[in-house]
Each structure stands twice: as structure tokens, then as C-alpha cells.
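Hey, can you fold this one?
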Amino acid sequence: MFEPSSINRNTSNTMNAPVSSAPVAPIRLLLLAAGTLSLQAQLLTLGNYGGHDYYYDPMPYTSQDAAKAEAAAQGLMLVSITSEPENDFLEAVIAPIAPAQLRAAWIGLSRTTSSDPWAWSSGEPFGYANWRPAGILVGFPEPTGEEAGVMYVNDGSAIGYWADTYGSGTEPFNAIYESVPEPFDYALISGLGLGAFAAFRRRAPR
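Sure. Predicted structure:
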């Protein structure tokens, strides 16, 4: 949960349409397979870590599902952060562009209700976490009972930490994506299920 005085929430949980550029062509999948990893100019390339390519989408999305759909349209996926070195990498590469971005970005972490366990949309096990502790920005720690995860990007000393928020609302966030590694592409993953993809990724830990 973000600081109450600075966040607007849509408590009706009605998904708001994201502000977006022109629709992304399905040819992104073909370009991905050919090794061309950037189709849309608005995506910022963050680099490669552990065999995965990472991208920052500076467009504003008012729901996690909208950001997830945009990732899928580009043959990518919302990022799953499974280790401290991976989180440190993302914090380091995002820091130079942070001043021009929104204060947080969607990541692929969610849960159905506050009593359910957290899960990555990739199907990878949830073990590592980097929730914002008490004393950074505000006196209470994360998580606080919402169902979607974001990473602080442009919010003072909290950069790199995670927060939970509602899956849809009125405050927009950017998004962090990662590539779907060979030999899979997104269409194949959609058909086989993310569980098979997670099993593949566990064979090459980051």
C-alpha cells in the first residue's frame, strides 16, 4: 500500500482503461524469434541478466492486467524477480531513467485475496521478496493486504523495494517486462501453460 495521503484508489475494483500508444502488431513474436528484441520505441532496453532480457515500459497502466496484456502483445511478460542479485540488477539499470518515470512499475506478482500466497505470473515459485520495510517513506511496512505487486521506481529512498496495491485503480504505474527465453516463445507458452515454462526456467537459475 502506498502512503494514504498520496494515492487515489478505485475501491469499486473497476478496471480503468490504460493510457496507451497504438496497438502493438502480432509481428512482435516473429521479430522475437528472429532475435530482434525491440519493436516499440516506447520500450526502454534495460539489458541482460542471467540470460534474460529486460525492458521498461514508460507508458501508464491503471491495472496490472492491462500491463500484462501489453507484455503479451509484445511477446514478453511481466518480470518475475526471484533473487536478490536480480533485484539489484534491476534497481541499478532503472536508477538512471527513474527521474522521468512514474513512481512505481507493475511486476508479475499477485494473489487472489490477502489470505492467499503470493505467486509469479510466470509460474515460478515465490521465495525471494524485497518488500519496503517500515521507516522507508512511511512508518508501516509492506505488504499491507492488497493483491498486486509493484516496484518503487521514482519515489525517493524506496527505489528497488516492492509494494502491494490494488490490481486496478486510478493511479497509473509503468511496467517492467522480461523476455521469454528460447526455445519457447509466448505463443507456445500460452498453449502449454506457464507451469511448463517455469520448469524450464528453473533449469537455468538466475
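Confidence is low (pLDDT under 50) at residues 3-41, 183-192. Let me know if you want another pass with a different chain boundary.
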